[in-house]
């Protein structure tokens, strides 16, 4: 193979590959449909011309028939009048008219056949155009669907579910650590010595308020003499019990 042939082949291959990439099937099919529809008026014009020729020949044939009848009448009238010379002239015209009529009849037959064929070809073309148009519309719909599927596939390729899953797991772990730390701080805060001392102070305040209430009731004579002593004894016993529990608890915590 020569050098020029190889260069030509490479150029054609490259050009074909480039055209395949930029060629849009949807646009090509739409243009094909437009081209087919644009041919219909031209085809109708051609059929109309053929039919017009047929009609013109038919009209000429009818005129020749009338001429033949008229010449035949004139010949008969000339013979009756004894004008053989005029009759002979009319006979010559009649023969020519008959020849023209035969020739026109043949042309009319061919024109009639051509008109039928042209109409049939036009009808077949329109029918084929409708069929091709329907097929093209189906192909265009398929092309649009394929384009949407390609876009969806590209989107799915860029969406990596594994990366997002790892992100969710990482964030979940961080949140769990923060929750655990908060719970530990809360538990530590509730079990500290300061919290226990606050509880003791609150309990002592309640005891003082209770004692003050009993004192008011005793002053107002609402309690007997024995009741006040018993109340004080009970209160004292309660204070001693609370202090004893606190001392034991703090001793245990200090040992731990």
Describe the structure concisely for a colleague.
The protein is built from six helices and no strands. The protein is mostly helical.
Number of individual domains: 3
Global outline:
rod-shaped
How many beta strands in the DSSP annotation? 0
Largest sheet: none
**CATH architecture field of the largest domain:** Orthogonal Bundle
CATH fold-level topology of the largest domain? Helix Hairpins
Distance between the termini: 99 Å
Would you kindly provide a written description of the structure presented here, covering whatever features stand out?
It is built from six helices and no strands. The protein is mainly α and 256 residues long. The protein folds into three domains: 3-148, Helix Hairpins (Orthogonal Bundle); 156-191; 192-256. Helix 2 (25-80) packs antiparallel against helix 3 (84-158). The longest helix has 75 residues, at 84-158. Mean pLDDT is 77; it is low at 226-240.
Features:
single chain; 3 domains; Helix Hairpins; mainly alpha
Q: What's the layout of helices and strands?
A:
Elements: H1 3-22, H2 25-80, H3 84-158, H4 161-190, H5 193-219, H6 225-255
Helix pairs in contact: 2-3, 5-6
């Amino acid at each position: 193979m020569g050098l020029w042939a190889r260069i030509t082949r490479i150029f054609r291959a490259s050009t074909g590959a480039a055209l395949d990439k930029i060629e849009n099937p949807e646009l090509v099919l739409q243009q094909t449909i437009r081209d087919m529809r644009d041919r219909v008026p031209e085809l109708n014009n051609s059929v109309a011309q053929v039919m017009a020729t047929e009609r013109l020949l038919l009209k000429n044939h009818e005129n020749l028939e009338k001429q033949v009848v008229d010449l035949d009448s004139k010949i008969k009238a000339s013979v009756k009048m004894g004008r053989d010379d005029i009759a002979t002239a009319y006979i010559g015209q009649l023969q020519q008219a008959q020849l023209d009529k035969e020739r026109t009849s043949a042309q009319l037959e061919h024109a009639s056949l051509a008109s039928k064929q042209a109409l049939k070809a036009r009808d077949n073309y329109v029918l084929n155009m409708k069929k091709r148009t329907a097929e093209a519309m189906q192909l265009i719909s398929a092309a649009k669907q394929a384009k949407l599927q390609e876009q969806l596939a590209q989107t799915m390729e860029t969406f990596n579910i594994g990366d997002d899953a790892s992100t969710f797991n990482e964030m979940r772990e961080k949140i769990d650590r923060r929750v655990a730390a908060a719970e530990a701080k809360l538990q530590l805060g509730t079990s500290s010595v300061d919290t226990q001392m606050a509880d003791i102070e609150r309990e002592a305040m309640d005891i003082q308020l209770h004692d003050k209430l009993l004192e008011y009731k005793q002053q107002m004579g609402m309690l007997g003499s024995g009741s006040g002593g018993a109340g004080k004894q009970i209160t004292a016993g309660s204070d001693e019990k609370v202090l004893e529990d606190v001392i034991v608890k703090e001793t245990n915590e200090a040992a731990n």
